[in-house]
Design brief:
The chain is an alpha/beta fold. The protein contains eight helices and eight strands; from the N terminus they run E-H-E-H-E-H-E-E-H-E-H-E-H-H-E-H. An eight-stranded mixed beta sheet has the order 3-2-1-4-7-6-8-5, sandwiched between helices. The longest helix is centred in the last third of the chain and has 24 residues. It is globular.
C-alpha cells in the first residue's frame, strides 16, 4: 500500500525459549525495512534472553529490552513504551503469524475512524494442529466499551492499534486485569475498534500460556470489571485534557 505507515511490533517474552524463535521468524517477513520488533524480556529460568539477543544480532529491526518488572502487563508496557511506529501490533511469544497479516490489517486502517483492529485466528494445540472446536468470532457489539467491559474479546495477540490510542492508554492504569482489554478501551475513546474475520494467526494453546482462557471465579471477575471500568473513565478524562 502507498504511504505505508511505520509498524512496530511489541512482543513480551518470559520463559519462552521453546516457541520464541518460531514466532519471531514468522513476524520478520511481515515487516518492511523501516519497521521494528521490540522484544521485552522478563527474567526467565531458561535461555529466552540469550535467544532474543541472538535473533537481534541477525536482524537490525529487532530491539531487545530486558524488563526487570515481572508480570505480563509490566512486560508488555515496557515493550509498548519503546515502540515508535504509527501502527503498533501486539504479539505473544508462542504464536505464529500467517503470511499477509500486516498487509490485511494496515488496509483496514485506511479508514481514519478505525483506531484499533482485531483479526481472526486459528486456535491450535502446542504442535500448531487446529483444535476441533474453534470459538466464535466476536460480534461488533463486543468491541464497544460495554462489550469489552462485559467480556473482552479484543485478544491482544490479534490486535493492532494507532499510536494515538497507545498514547492515551499509557501508562496503563494500576489494577487492570490484562493489557489488551485496557488498550481496546482506550482505542474506543477516540474511534472504532473493528473486527476483521481474516484468520491471520495460529493461536497456540499449550497449557502454560501467560494469558488465561477464563476468569478465576465470580469475585475475581467482578473485581476485573470494576478495574476496567475505572480505566475507561481515566482514559475519558485523559482524552478530555488532550
Amino acid at each position: 500500500m502507498s504511504g505505508r505507515p511505520m509498524v512496530s511490533v511489541a512482543l513480551a517474552a518470559c520463559n519462552g525459549e521453546k516457541y520464541l524463535e518460531a514466532q519471531v521468524r514468522s513476524i520478520l517477513p511481515e515487516l518492511a525495512g523501516g519497521d521494528e520488533l521490540i522484544l521485552s524480556v522478563n527474567p526467565s529460568a531458561d535461555g529466552t534472553l540469550a535467544l532474543a539477543r541472538r535473533l537481534a544480532q541477525e536482524d537490525r529491526r529487532i530491539t531487545v529490552i530486558p524488563c526487570d518488572e515481572a508480570g505480563v502487563i509490566a512486560n508488555f508496557s515496557c515493550a509498548l513504551r519503546h515502540c515508535r511506529g504509527e501502527i503498533v501490533f501486539l504479539s505473544d511469544q508462542d504464536d505464529v503469524w500467517l503470511p499477509g497479516k500486516t498487509e490485511a490489517v494496515l488496509k483496514t486502517f485506511s479508514s481514519a475512524a478505525v483506531t484499533a483492529v482485531v483479526h481472526g485466528c486459528v486456535w491450535t494445540d502446542s504442535a500448531l494442529n487446529p483444535l476441533p472446536a474453534q470459538p466464535p468470532a466476536p460480534a461488533a457489539h463486543r468491541l464497544t466499551p460495554a462489550g469489552i467491559l462485559w467480556k473482552n474479546e479484543a485478544r491482544g495477540c490479534c490486535m493492532a492499534l494507532r499510536r494515538e490510542a497507545l498514547a492515551l492508554a499509557l501508562p496503563l492504569p494500576q489494577g487492570v486485569p490484562m493489557h489488551d482489554s485496557a488498550l481496546a478501551l482506550a482505542a474506543c475513546c477516540i474511534g472504532q475498534v473493528l473486527f476483521i474475520p481474516d484468520q491471520l494467526l495460529l493461536y497456540r494453546r499449550h497449557g502454560d500460556n501467560q494469558s488465561p482462557d477464563s476468569h478465576r471465579g465470580l469475585a475475581r471477575m467482578l473485581a476485573d470489571r470494576w478495574q476496567l471500568f475505572r480505566a475507561w473513565l481515566l482514559f475519558r478524562r485523559r482524552r478530555g485534557r488532550s
